[in-house]
Amino acid sequence: MKKRFLFCRLFLLALVTVLIISCILEQAPDFPCSQWGFIKTQNPKYYIHPERVVIQPWLGQHHVYGVFMLPSGYAHDRLMTVRIPENEPFCGTVLNAGQSADGVNAQPGHYLARGYLRTRTTLKLVIQGKIQHLLNRKNWQIGSAGRRTEETRGRGDAGTRRKKDK
User: Fold this and answer.
1) Could you give the C-alpha distances from 54 to 81, 113, 147, 151, in angstroms and in order?
2) Contact, 67 vs 101, CB < 8 A?
3) Contacts of 27 by beta carbon, 8 Å cutoff, 6+ apart
4) Radius of gyration for the alpha carbons in the chain, expressed in angstroms and rounded
5) pTM of the model
6) What angle do CA 33, 77, 113 make, to 5 degrees?
7) Contact by Cβ (8 Å): 66, 80
8) Could you tell me if 158 and 74 are in contact, meaning their C-beta atoms sit under 8 angstroms apart?
């Protein structure tokens, strides 16, 4: 009798926990892909994909990101984009990571940057069974517009390492 009562309590606790998490994920707004985070240029725009993608949302905030290798002296978008099939694009912030990060070392004339995706967004996609899409480096990108000018100064550095998207 005690075992059955304990089992029922644990089952109810698990059920309530799942319901609460699903409600939170449904109400969590995604990071908006607003125009202020992207370079506007008349020159061709190139896209850089990450050297490595880290997906560990169970460790908490800031454990879902791509490590991008960016050439010095080039302007790049302030936001990175993750495109998952059957979803709107997801955006995240880009922060400098120095010369070495997560087993990736920057080549001469380059530096590393991390593009972070929201943990809540990642959990939602993992629950939907889209972790393989998240792990695909080609779904992550940062846009680059060429050499920095006075107009783009202060927006960061990037380069044209990868071929142009059409």
Assistant:
1) 15, 13, 29, 33
2) yes
3) none
4) 20
5) 0.68
6) 110
7) yes
8) yes
Amino acid at 60: G
CA distance 95 to 122: 19
Average pLDDT value over all residues in the chain: 77
Q: In this structure, what are the phi and psi dihedrals at residue 145, rounded to the nearest 5 degrees? A: -115, 10
For residue range 48-100, list pLDDT tens digits in order. Answer: 999 999 998 888 778 899 999 988 888 888 888 899 888 888 888 888 888 87
Is the pLDDT confidence value at 148 over 80?
no
10, 121, 125, 140 from 87: Cα distances, Å = 35, 12, 10, 14
**CA separation for the pair 71, 52 (Å, rounded):** 16
**pLDDT confidence of residue 19:** 61
Q: Say how far apart CA 85 and CA 80 lie, in whole Å.
A: 17
